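Why should sequence recovery work at all? Because a backbone constrains its sequence more than one might expect. Tight turns favour small or flexible residues, buried strands favour hydrophobic ones, and helices have their own preferences. The token representation captures these environments compactly. In the example below, the structure is given first.
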């Protein structure tokens, strides 16, 4: 079996790029002026959602790193098996 590490790295890079879309955003200063309870609840909901985005983005980065590492491991295994079949 031939492992295309370049293709694997490209796909992992695409995933890392996608993770960039899940970075957190700050709540605008205009959103902090009101003191009504609904505004406080919306701030809490916004923060919770931003934390979810950040966690998801971090998960994508971890997955991309795992894909690269797995690809490297398969390349090594592929080379070892090819050498074993020659001998």
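From this structural description, the recovered sequence reads:
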């Amino acid at each position: 079996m031939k492992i295309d590490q370049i293709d694997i790295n490209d796909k992992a890079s695409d995933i890392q790029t996608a993770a960039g879309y899940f970075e957190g955003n700050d709540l605008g200063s205009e959103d902090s002026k009101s003191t009504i309870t609904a505004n406080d609840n919306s701030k809490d909901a916004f923060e919770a959602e931003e934390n979810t985005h950040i966690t998801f983005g971090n998960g994508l980065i971890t997955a991309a790193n795992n894909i690269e590492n797995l690809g490297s491991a398969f390349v090594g295994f592929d080379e070892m098996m090819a050498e074993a079949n020659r001998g």
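A few observations help interpret the result. Residues 37-86 form the longest helix (50 residues).
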